[in-house]
Design brief:
The structure holds two protein chains of two kinds.
Chain A lengths: L1 H15 L4 H21 L4 H23 L2 H25 L1 E3 L2 E6 L4 E2 L1 H18 L7 H19 L4 H17 L4 H22 L2 H11 L10 H11 L12 H4 L11 H34 L3 H25 L18 H25 L1
Antiparallel strand pairs in A: 1-2, 2-3
Helix pairs in contact in A: 2-3, 2-12, 3-14, 4-5, 4-6, 5-6, 5-7, 5-13, 5-14, 6-7, 7-13, 10-12, 12-13, 12-14, 13-14
Chain B lengths: L1 H45 L1 H12 E6 L6 E2 L5 E13 L7 H12 L3 H13 L6 E4 L4 H10 L6 E10 L7 H4 L2 E3 L2 H9 L11 E3 L2 H5 L1 H5 E2 L1 E7 L5 E8 L2 E2 L2 E4 L3 H10 L5 E7 L4 E8 L5 H4 L4 H9 L8 H4 L9 H10 L8 E4 L2 E3 L6 E3 L7 E4 H6 L3 H22 L21 H8 L5 H7 L10 H12 L4 E2 L4 E6 L2 E4 L4 E2 L7 H16 L6 H4 L7 E7 L22 E8 L6 E7 L5 H16 L12 H10 L1
Parallel strand pairs in B: 2-12
Antiparallel strand pairs in B: 1-9, 2-3, 3-4, 3-5, 6-7, 8-11, 9-10, 12-20, 13-14, 13-25, 15-18, 16-17, 19-22, 20-21, 23-24, 24-25
Helix pairs in contact in B: 10-22, 14-16, 14-20, 16-18
Chain lengths: ~375, ~625
Amino acid sequence: MIRTKLETNKQTWLQHLHIDGWLLLGLIVLMGVGLVTIYSAGGQDVELVQRQFIRLGVALVVMFALAQVPVGAYRRVAIYFYLAGLAMLVAVLIVGVVGKGAQRWLDLGVIRFQPSEIMKLAVPMLVAWYISKENLPPRIQHITIGFIMVLTPTLLIAKQPDLGTSLLIASSGLFALFLAGMSWKLITIVGGLASAFAPIMWFFLMQDYQKQRVLTFMDPESDPLGAGYHIIQSKIAIGSGGWEGKGWLQGTQSQLEFLPERHTDFIFSVFSEEFGLLGVLALLAIYIYIIVRGMLIAVRAQDAFSKLLAGSLTLTFFVYVFVNMGMVSGILPVVGVPLPLVSYGGTSMVTLMAGFGILMAISTQKRLLVRE
Amino acid sequence: MPAKRMTIKDHTAEANLFARRTVVALLIVGVMLSVLVSNLYVLQIKKFQDYQTRSNGNRIKVLPVAPNRGLIYDRKGRLLAENRPVYSLEIVPEQVEDIDGVVAELSAMLDISDDEIKDFEQSLKRVRRFKPVALRSRLSEQDVARFAAQQHRFPGVSIEARLTRFYPYADALTHVLGYVARINKKDLQKLREAGQEDNYAATHDIGKQGVERYHEDLLHGEVGYQQVEVNSQGRIIRVLDFDPPTPGQDIVLNIDIDLQMEARKALEGRRGSVVALDPRTGGVMALYSNPSYDPNLFVHGISSKDYSALLNSPDRPLINRATQGQYPPASTIKPHLALVGLEEGIIDSETTLFDRGRYQLKNVSHVWRDWKKYGHGQVDVVKSVEVSCDIFFYDLAYRLGIDRISDAMQQFGFGDYTGIDLYEESDANMPSRGWKRARHNEPWYIGDTISVGIGQSYWTATPLQLADSLMALVNKGSRYVPQIIRGNLVDDEVQLQPVKELRPIPVKNEENWDIVLDSLYGTVNREHGTARSAFSGAHYISGGKTGTAQLFSIGQDEEYEEENVAKHLRDNAMYIGYAPIDAPEIVVAVALENAGGGSSNAAPVARQIMDFHFRDRTFDSLVLNPQDAAEDNESQ
């Protein structure tokens, strides 16, 4: 009796702050795993861990702030948010700052800023808003417009070029359409068209270095010291981890610097080398927990807009996980997607946590609505 | 209101539709996860061994460790070739904040030249930042001391030691020891062909000449290995395992460094060589060729200026005159010819001839002269050797004919390699009909045979061959390969290398050999002997033979006058000798280029060598039967 009462109190207290306790628990555990792995991957650099710690704090604050925003506000601003993002994407292509061989940043004087990050939230918001205006399942003309909404920023970002982000944005929009009930027939047709589009991508849209990545992915051993080096070293790191791993700080592939991008995109290789398949399964369990929790929030959400947005954000989170693990273990080409909340780095993590803030808003605000 | 109804109805339907799609989405997520996990299972479990091996292959490197080269001692245990540390001043770039400043300070302290700094800056660009770069490769001991006192001020700068060869006797042993120098492309090719490439993986130098080259296999040793963990840039993180190298064998030579130094002293300022062999074993006790050069120059890489000076010197110091110098043997081979004449039955001890200073053949206008203008008068074979009568040997050669001479002299080793443990050896030339036809496409003339009788006319020999042939004479046909190496040093004890015997010269009648040895005795000890004055008063009894090789053809009726002949065309002085007479311990051959007569120039050198060799011995200890010998000595 007492326990129930306490629990109720606690939930009420968290709910009052618009925090989903279960989701937060998963996120915090994941962040902890991330800090521990970054310490090892960064060569025991405490400063690196401190910087990541501060970023995590900032990201949590952003999440907390966005959780306070009424869900209706997201629905209302979606279109302006999207248009602003689109304008900035065009601006990037014209006056953007070049870094790492791609034009992704807008220099706003004080900070450098990636408009594509806005689109990660703006696209699912817009599609969810647009589709949920009418009854579900959506009609073909709505779906067509939905596709245009998704593909416009996707192509603009692919042109920067930033294949990883464009892939994430495309999937976030398409997930909204899928969850909205787009008919299987249409899905088959679109799938067929996409396959037909692939050669066009290859010949007209992809940069040489991207083509090289795909070729390397097909056969990394063809160029073991050049383009294939990263993926080979990564597979060696993962494979040599075995069941139990080499132990924390004991991964030779990472500690002796054979692995590239150890604390960023390839952090999963470090983790697999040091903690083995058992560690990997535990890590996957945390991710699955977060995804299931996210989908539960979506299913329980009160209106179609909330459902579609929550579902789309959650599934996009899964795409992060799948693409990152897939690329470092050699079943997907290397496209520069970080392991969410574990990889070192600020921008994409803040966006992710912003997404979780929206999820929490959806999760906690419906009961308030019910009460009212 | 229908619209409202529809909305409510749709609301439930929407929720159901969304729930169904969520289930499908989660199913797809499940399928994708299982693809991911099964791939990880394959990587981490199925192919674990494979990837573990590759991971170890990444991080574990096996580094070869060079063995220490074997030392070289003389027969009395004195060090002839040693390994000394050479110090170099090295800087690890990444450990030094202000490289330019540190280099400036160091160059002020150690007087480092601009060239050295330029070299340093060059290699700085090529080498990884954690690898040491040498600022000066050979520090003097003062430099080392000066830097050591200030080392604390220079983090990242250190003195590194490496063992390199040092030859303390410098030019005295160059033609025996040779030298080691950096392994070059050609050496590498040879090592590869011999399957020795791995063994030399860490080795810096290889024997290039002399004993260092010939006995390379003994001296080098076996490479060791160090197993280290490296990072992706190749920096060594730690040593995992160490399999030490097997050092090279220490070897002991037959050379007596004191005798060698005496030979050097005797040849100072002359072009020539001395060989001293032990006739009981073939051991080479001294082998010196003058002028020589300092082999230490080559160890550290000789400058091209120094090298071309050596190469272009008219005195040709790079040639080992003792083994590569090809000289007409001149009269030194008269004893050998005498023996062949006796053994072939052409002459006997009674055969005499009256020498008037001229020799002519029927129907041939050419006149062969004796070195003594009016001849030696009545001579037999012994006296002919003692006084070095030319006419007797013109006639003997004529009667023997070139074929028998050539065959017999080849048995003494002429025209062939002695097999000494040096690659720098010439086989010189023992002429024959076949040789002349092949070489000059000319028939053999009778006149050629007559000149062969006094060791001229295409006949050349090295001083080593002469010593070797005399050894065969005093050993009455037994032949040994001259060997510089005496044995290996194992736990401070010398394990002798076996004496290498060759097929002996067949003996028909031992008395013939005694006659010839008696003539060698007479040359040194009897009144008219050509080496008598050179050896007068010696505290041992020796035998020998002088030789004076003409390099300059004088006309039929001209006199040879030394003053009128250019120095490089003056006669070569030759001498071969042995002592003590009845139990020989040393055989000496001397060849002096353009020095003049053998008895007055070469014989005194041999005397000096023998005097030195027997310096600590009494007369009595040097003869078999002291009383007889003493009487014999007095009667002269």
